[in-house]
Amino acid sequence: MPLRLSLLLFALAPGTALADAPPKVDFARDVLPILSDNCFACHGPDAKARKGDLRLDTKDDAHASGSIVPGKSADSELYKRITSADPTEVMPPAKNVKQLTPQQKDVLKRWIDQGAPWGRHWAFEPPTRPPVPGNGNPIDAFVQARLRKEKLTPAPAATKEQLIRRVTLDLTGLPPTPAEVDAFAADPAPDAFEKVVDRLLASPRYGERMAWDWLDAARYADSNGYQGDNERTMWPWRDWVVRAFNDNMPYDRFTVWQLAGDLMPNATREQILATGFNRNHMINGEGGRIPEENRIEYVFDQTETLGTIWLGLTLTCSRCHDHKFDPISRRDYYRLFAYFNQTPVNGGGGNGQTPPVIDFSTPDMETRLKAAQKSLDEVVGKLTPVEKRFRDDAAVTTKDGKYESKLPAVIESALRKGPNGRTDANQDELAKHYEKSEPAYVAQLKEFRKRKGERDAAAGAIPKVMVMGDMPKPRDTFILTRGTYDKHEDKVQPGVPESLPALPKDAPVNRLALANWVVAKDNPLTARVTVNRYWQTFFGTGLVKTADDFGVQGERPSHPELLDWLAVEFRDGGWDVKKLVRLIVTSQTYRQSSKVTAEARERDPENRLLARGPRHRLPSWMLRDQALFAAGIMTPTVGGTPVRTYQPPGIWEEATFGFKRYQQDTGAALYRRSLYVFWRRIVGPTMFFDTANRQTCAVKTTTTNTPLHALTTLNDTTFVEAARVLAQRAMIEGGKDDADRLRAAFRHAVGRVPADAEVGILRGALDRQRRLYSADRAAASRLLSVGEMPRRTDLDVVEHAALTAVCTLILNLDETLTKQ
């Protein structure tokens, strides 16, 4: 026994042959990415692109061809080819830009010699709840376990001022008030932060903040896009989204209603409204377009939006060919397409209220429309007899009894149409013809056009939301050659990709079955994709960086066990979004300081290991809301029609060849939250940068840094006006003392009390501005006239202008523009 024990101990001792055995190669983690990047384009799922009739994306094909002989790398054609010195034999071909590294070749050799155990891409495997490697918040347990493995130390906790600003921006899109910061700083309770989080989750501002990301994904806009870019009234659906987030609607219900609420048993008005999600696609009303071609494009968009938002798959690749990397065939694509191919929409015209629609008129709207119509009818009643006289006075009857007019043909034609049947060009012709001889009539024509515009505006203000509805008789669906609308191949029935779990055998053949399948427990993608996007919301990058691609070409999760734990917790916990959000933001991982050490920046420049808190520039829409809120002028109204705020002249006109003219709103509408700003699809609101264009689904926007951004935050009317009103607010709150005024302005924008040294710097800036404006009071007056918000005339012009310039500086501090 002593001898055997000593031999066993020797065998297990560090440095022995047993300890030096090569690590086990994992197919999904180590091998599949190599094959996908270097082999699948020519030897993968796409049959038409496949070369040499060789397939390496399935085990059976790879083994049958002799490419892989388990346990024998020397006999495996794959290994022979990747190590060949013959340029005509080596794979990938020598001309390819991508070539295998020695390390990758070694991985493939070891994998084959270890028996070439096969597996599936990690995202297609059902998530299971892994054991939590510690106590407390499970997020912290997983993250800290990884940090220990990487020999990294977590950052210390953020200060209370930093933390409340971070979480308030994240959960409401607005900064905290000085009173909220003071209350949190003064609360010694161990659950003080949790109480702040609960208060923010209960705020109506929470739903507005969360809705923004969903509108990007859902490609929401207030116009159709394309050259005509006609307006649409989808905003009641937008408001439904806000309510759904505020009410904490379970995510599975949120999903099913939007995809197929109209097919629910005894569908309610709200369930039908939710399906407006599917109708947010662009509508092409350009002349000469073929309606069926348009219709097919709309269904493509609906199908691919589903794929991006819930499945995290790049389905678009499969419109024209089998996916080159993921197990999604063309047949799979068009089977999904078939679910959305049943609406009565025919693709014709550019009407932004194309049926099926649901009417959301209010009694006030109906009253306004009736009054406008009555007013218009009164003018028509005055015009009609006058125009009859014009025609009668110019009419003669020929010998054969036929009517002839002495009027010019264009005038006779215009009069014959009657007031309600004429075009604007007809009206112009009549006005020009009768300008001198009948000035009273021309004045009535002008009044008619005015009242007709009022009637049309009243009618257009009644929102008719485009929603979903299927035809009684199903439309046939065919695979389309290269996605061309009229090139039909095989007929297909609705269904889901073969590589994913099948539908229940008794499932109906409609969108409701598809929607239920999306959130079914055995769907491996939806919960993972969703929790990853919420992680991205708070940390800037998802656990899977490629939030829109969970396929083989997407990035592997930085913390796979954490991702799966969150996915299972979310799914099995009732798809509770607020619970998930609360879990994330109350974690120590989220509450870390974002200050980075040189070592951490060197080891982990993108913070993928999460050794520090999140830090990134606020999105442009949030910067605008922050400025309005800090100045105290944000209009708090929730929901309603979109507003037209400040915009440089000529933008719409230039983009639409003069057909669309921008009419700015006034008063409180100018200060509504960014969520409610009118979004013209071909040219979005000019004050926003790094935002989705709302033309197609977008689940992640880029963050860039160009001088144009600073030009906006320094010079856009909204920001200059906000600085002016913030200065006024600081002068009132701070009294006569410069330091107190500067502290007040700083606190509203940055969320903390400035240090004495910072106040000193700001006082220096204030003194310089004071000297400049004292020498040029006209410039001070011009600055204080920016924007429509009235100013306190009892405030000294020079003092107000000088402090406005400093408040512009404060609103452009890195700390103000950044969440940290």
From TrEMBL:
Pfam family, one: PSCyt1
Coiled coil regions in record: none
Entry keyword Signal: yes
Domain named DUF1553: residues: 510-763
The Cytochrome C Planctomycete-type domain, residue ranges: 39-94
PANTHER family for the chain: CYCLOINULO-OLIGOSACCHARIDE FRUCTANOTRANSFERASE-RELATED, F-BOX DOMAIN-CONTAINING PROTEIN
Protein name per UniProt: Planctomycete cytochrome C
Organism whose genome encodes this protein: Urbifossiella limnaea
